[in-house]
TrEMBL record:
This is D-3-phosphoglycerate dehydrogenase. Keywords: NAD, Oxidoreductase. Residues 107-275 form the D-isomer specific 2-hydroxyacid dehydrogenase NAD-binding domain. GO terms for molecular function: NAD binding; phosphoglycerate dehydrogenase activity. The lineage of its organism: Bacteria, Pseudomonadati, Thermodesulfobacteriota, Desulfobulbia, Desulfobulbales. Pathway: Amino-acid biosynthesis. The keyword NAD applies. Belongs to the D-isomer specific 2-hydroxyacid dehydrogenase family. It comes from Desulfoprunum benzoelyticum. Residues 46-307 form the D-isomer specific 2-hydroxyacid dehydrogenase catalytic domain. Its EC number is 1.1.1.95.
Length: 393
């Protein structure tokens, strides 16, 4: 019998689902899963009594109540970088479509279908000047958010002979180290956008970023700049953007989140949420999410979690049981857990601990079975959020 029940929500690429081994039973109807695999649907962790982890096949996790998950000791994963190529692959063409008047040019060419064939060439030569565009080489690109997508976009700007400036409010060194040396890392949003001809947003949707691009933000931007949003719609205050377009402060708004107000605006170019919609991106996201979820359930390892610290340990062939302890990040927890295990006469073969300032996560390997009384004693402490054991016997 499979050890773990997985609820699949939304269509998940089959290439990813194939990575689940015999230990897993995967179903869209599972009512009480230990793991949830999701793309864009809302997930309320309180709906599933036995839930241990949620894996999002994508980068953003605003469709999951992460704070509540943390309170309950439920790990939430995302798939950072898995869709990065897909987004960057779309952003640059969309900038080009606007700057080179490609959309208007295509519409013009289609209008020639009813013209007499021998007059098409002359009409093209007569009207083509109306669609003359502008190159992005030499322009300044400002990138707000230097995760995997932002880094690749910034580097792509360098390859297109642009001047690139980038900023991230919480930079991860692993991403920053991937930036080309030609990219200028700024210390503030203002320094990033004040000279930028094009500003591209690549931030997650959080309480801090919701509505971040408001009138004050746009006022700091260079007059005549283009704003690009292929991150999340609510990051941008739509009212402020439309005002800036109407008064000429912004040349254009290019985004992936059409609304009734935006789709009819002559200075807005929008796609129907296509940023990550490629076969390759969906396969990459699904595969990463499945690996994260299965590794957590089978071994207790944490990789790419948005609410738990990253921590991995490979059990030796002598390990009988792995004890997982999730606690609030307060002093004395390692000693508390160690003493309780020792008090029950159990020898600890390996103890690994990591914290992220809010959650402490402990992986303790022992060479014997662990009675339920051990976990009960550990859970009696008010700062312990959750425990579980994984048997390798």
């Amino acid at each position: 019998m499979p050890a773990f029940r997985i609820r699949r929500i939304n269509a998940i690429a089959k290439e990813g689902l194939r990575l689940f081994g015999d230990n897993f039973a995967v179903s869209p109807e599972e009512a009480d899963p230990q793991g949830v695999l999701v793309r864009s649907s809302q997930v309320d962790v309180d709906d599933y009594p036995s839930l241990l982890a949620v894996a999002r096949a994508g980068a953003g996790v605003n469709n999951i109540n992460v704070d509540r998950a943390t309170e309950k000791g439920i790990c939430v994963f995302n798939s950072p970088g898995a869709n990065a190529n897909a987004v960057v692959d779309l952003v640059f063409p969309m900038i080009g479509v606007w700057k080179r008047n490609i959309y208007a040019g295509i519409q013009f060419c289609r209008s020639l279908a009813e013209m007499e064939p021998d007059k098409v060439g002359a009409e093209v030569e007569k009207k083509k000047a109306a669609f003359r565009g502008d190159e992005i080489a030499g322009k300044t690109l400002g990138v707000i958010g230097l995760g995997q997508i932002g880094v690749r976009l910034a580097n792509g700007g360098v390859h297109r002979f642009m001047k690139v400036r980038g900023f991230d409010p919480s930079p991860a060194l692993v991403n920053i180290h991937q930036l080309l040396p030609e990219v200028t890392i700024c210390r503030s949003i203002r320094d990033t956008v004040v000279t930028a001809d094009i500003v591209s947003l690549h931030l997650p949707l959080t309480d801090g970023t919701r509505g971040m691009v408001n009138r004050e933000f746009i006022t700091r931007m260079k007059k005549g700049a283009i704003l690009v949003n292929y991150a999340r719609g609510p990051i941008v205050d739509e009212e402020a953007v439309v005002e800036a377009l109407d008064c000429g402060h912004l040349e254009a708004f290019i985004c992936d989140f059409p609304t009734a107000r935006l789709v009819g605006h002559p200075k807005v170019l929008t796609t129907p949420h296509l940023g990550a919609s490629t076969a390759q991106s969906e396969e990459n996201c699904a595969s990463m999410a499945v690996r994260e979820l299965s590794n957590y359930l089978e071994y207790g390892n944490v990789v790419h979690s948005v609410n738990f610290p990253n921590i991995e340990s490979t059990p030796t062939d002598k390990v009988h049981t792995r004890i997982i302890v999730i606690n609030r990040d307060v002093p004395g927890m390692i000693a508390l857990v160690s003493n309780i295990i020792g008090h029950h006469g159990i020898n600890i073969a390996s103890y690994l601990n990591q914290s992220n300032g809010k959650v402490g996560y402990n992986i303790i390997d022992v060479e014997s079975a662990v009675p339920a009384a051990v976990l009960a004693d550990i859970e009696n402490n008010a700062d312990v959020v959750r425990t579980r054991t994984i048997s390798f016997a």
